[in-house]
Design goal:
Blueprint lengths: L9 E2 L1 H8 L3 H9 L6 E3 L4 E5 H17 L2
Antiparallel strand pairs: 1-3, 2-3
Helix pairs in contact: 1-2
């Protein structure tokens, strides 16, 4: 099993929440609603997110807010 810290492009739920200035529960909610892709790792099924996918999600949200959609 690969430990997530060895994969530098993966972020935890808390790290994503801090980057996007939202509550970790919001990140989990987005993940459940498939708005942002989460990868389940380890025996507990912890969520991890790829940095580039989080960046794309952030940009998409920013554009939607700017355009008022």
């Amino acid at each position: 099993m690969i430990h997530y810290k060895k994969v530098s492009n993966m972020l935890t739920t808390g790290e994503v929440a801090r980057l996007l200035s939202v509550h970790p529960g919001t990140v989990r909610w987005w993940s459940r609603r498939q708005k942002i892709k989460a990868y389940r790792i380890g025996p507990r099924g912890d969520r991890r997110f790829q940095r580039d996918e989080v960046a794309a999600f952030f940009l998409e949200r920013a554009v939607q807010r700017y355009l008022g959609n």
